[in-house]
Design a protein that fits this description.
The chain is mainly beta. About 10% of the residues lie in helices and about 45% in strands. It folds into two domains: about 100 residues, Immunoglobulins (Immunoglobulin-like); about 50 residues, no CATH class. The chain contains one helix and twelve strands. The strands form four sheets. It has a four-stranded antiparallel β-sheet, with no helix packed on it. Strands 1-3-6 form a three-stranded antiparallel β-sheet, with no helix packed on it. It has a three-stranded antiparallel β-sheet with strand order 11-10-12, with no helix packed on it. A hairpin with a 6-residue loop joins strand 4 and strand 5.
């Protein structure tokens, strides 16, 4: 093998390594509030995404169950070097759920994957306590992503009940 062949191979290796580094994409996410959801209800799935270089593509969210084909939700997004939340509302199944699969697809191929597991279905009468805070000039849900940031000195906790559960919900005074 001549010097030109070795130089060409090294050039191709470094070029492909640079392409892989430029394609670094990070995904993190949660389902509902703290990965708790109500079966048969529309539920927010929030995905935080960032990329080393700005890139446009689609978030593909699949609700994976053991016995049925996955339900698929798609949203076009643009990822940059700053993590930004993207929220889609999905209808959670009333039967057992394995996990939620998130993919970022660009140029016809999957560039990043995230599996959100350990999801907890809540019964209709079970309250879901959600903490709100003032963040970025607006009211926001306090979640694990927001815990490292400074927040306004006030907050709000709210117990959320699903439809039909109001008869069993405690009154505000007791």
């Amino acid at each position: 093998m001549g010097r030109k062949s070795i130089a060409l191979i090294l050039l191709l290796l470094f070029a492909s390594a640079g392409y892989l580094l430029a394609d670094e994409i990070g995904l993190d996410g949660s389902v509902g509030f703290g990965n708790c959801y109500r079966p048969g209800e529309w539920t927010p799935v929030t995905v935080w995404g960032d990329a080393a270089e700005p890139i446009s593509g689609r978030l593909v969210i699949e609700i994976v169950t053991p016995d049925w084909p996955p339900a698929r939700y798609i949203q076009p997004v643009r990822l940059t070097n700053k993590p930004v939340p993207h929220t889609l509302y999905v209808l959670m199944p009333e039967y057992p759920l394995e996990h939620v699969q998130v993919r970022f697809v660009a140029s016809g191929r999957t560039r990043a994957k995230l599996e959100i597991g350990r999801l907890e279905p809540l019964a209709p009468a079970t309250p879901l306590v959600v903490n709100f805070t003032h963040y970025g000039g607006k009211l926001a849900v306090l979640n694990r992503k927001a815990l490292g940031f400074a927040h306004a000195p006030w907050g709000l906790s709210l117990a959320i009940y699903s439809k039909g559960a109001n008869a069993e919900a405690p009154s505000p005074g007791g």
